[in-house]
Amino acid sequence: MYGVDVKTHTTAEGIRAGLVKQLYTPVYWAATVRTMVTAGATQIVECGPGKVLTGLNRRVDKNRDLKMMALEDPLSLDDALAAAVTI
């Protein structure tokens, strides 16, 4: 498969290689989200400016039980950490 997906990067070294590879090849994000959900993920956290991937995640998986959060700044990180304590 040409591109980057979660199935081929499951070790620390593989993840590092995948992060570099995503700079110059396609990223199969929808397939990655589906794989995470199938594997049992209940939360997806986006780190960085904006909420682009969080919006895409909602379109990829219509499961309303899947929690998604975008961490855009230190305050949103603080909110996420506080929420994680109560889960």
Brief write-up:
The chain has 87 residues and is mainly α.
Structure description:
- It contains four helices and two strands.
- 48% of the residues lie in helices and 11% in strands.
- With 87 residues, the protein is mainly alpha-helical.
- The radius of gyration is 14 Å and the shape is globular.
Key features of this structure:
mainly alpha, 48% helix, globular, 87 residues, single chain
Q: What share of residues are in beta strands? A: 5-15%
Query: What order do the SSEs take from the amino end to the carboxyl end, as H and E?
Result: HHEHEH
Mean pLDDT: 81
Helix/strand-derived category reads mainly alpha
**Overall form:** globular
State the end-to-end distance: 37 Å
For the largest beta-sheet, the strand count, sense and barrel status come to: 2 strands, parallel
Q: If helices are DSSP runs of H or I spanning 4 or more residues, what is the number of helices?
A: 4
Helix content: 40-55%
Q: How would you classify the quaternary structure?
A: single chain
